[in-house]
Amino acid sequence: MNLENEDKFYLENKAQIDAIAEHYRAIIELLGEDVSREGLLRTPYRAAKALVEVTQGYRQNPEDLVEQAMFDYSGKSVVVVKDIEFYSLCEHHVLPFYGKISVGYLPNGKIVGLSKIARVVNALAKRLQVQERLTSELCELLTRALGSKGVIVVCEAGHLCMKMRGVEKQESTTVTMECSGAFENDALRAEFMKMLD
Fold it and tell me: N or C: which end of the chain has fewer CB within 10 A?
């Protein structure tokens, strides 16, 4: 974000950012820090602005994103968009989890602009989430919005709530998968998984 866009973002979200900044100020003080010291003077504001930015999915309608770019299509092959990176916040600890999502769908007379799938991933990920629900919501939404014969979603992510606190397992990853329609067939699901290699 350049400075001009940052100023615009702040102005569009001023009331929310300012209110959250006051809470951050109190939290920093409760941790035992001096919020008036030089390094922390702007931290409540910066943290609030960052939180509003990384939760912008609450202010987006992912179905609208899909509907903006639907096109007629007569093909019958699986469409795959793989390795869509995402960043989200775990709803249990408000710590980041991040990774990649791959989506496949079997068109039923319509396809969607490829960038819209990535935008839908962002809209759902930029909320307080759990990986399992993110995977499920994405599959359900795309099934409904695309009117396709089937959808499959695979998500692989690392969770800082497991890496930097609690059990502190640095190399752990979690994989979730959700499918609908034609992808409930083992052979088609296997074909999709092979395309991810």
Answer: C
Positive or negative, the Cα torsion across 186, 63, 66, 97?
A: negative
Q: Per-residue pLDDT tens, the chain, 197 aa: give them.
A: 455 566 888 899 999 999 999 999 999 999 999 999 999 999 999 999 999 999 999 999 999 999 999 999 999 899 999 999 999 999 999 999 999 999 999 999 999 999 999 999 999 999 999 999 999 999 999 999 999 999 999 999 999 998 888 888 888 899 999 999 999 999 999 999 999 98
Q: Count the Cβ atoms, other than its own, within 10 Å of residue 50.
A: 13
pTM: 0.90
Strand order in the sheet with 150-159: 128-129, 79-90, 96-106, 150-159, 174-181
Q: Residue 107 in contact with residue 71, Cβ under 8 Å?
A: no
Residue 60 designated active-site: no
Does 159 participate in catalysis according to the annotation? yes
Is there a catalytic annotation at residue 161?
yes
User: How many Cβ atoms from other residues are within 10 Å of residue 196's Cβ?
Assistant: 13
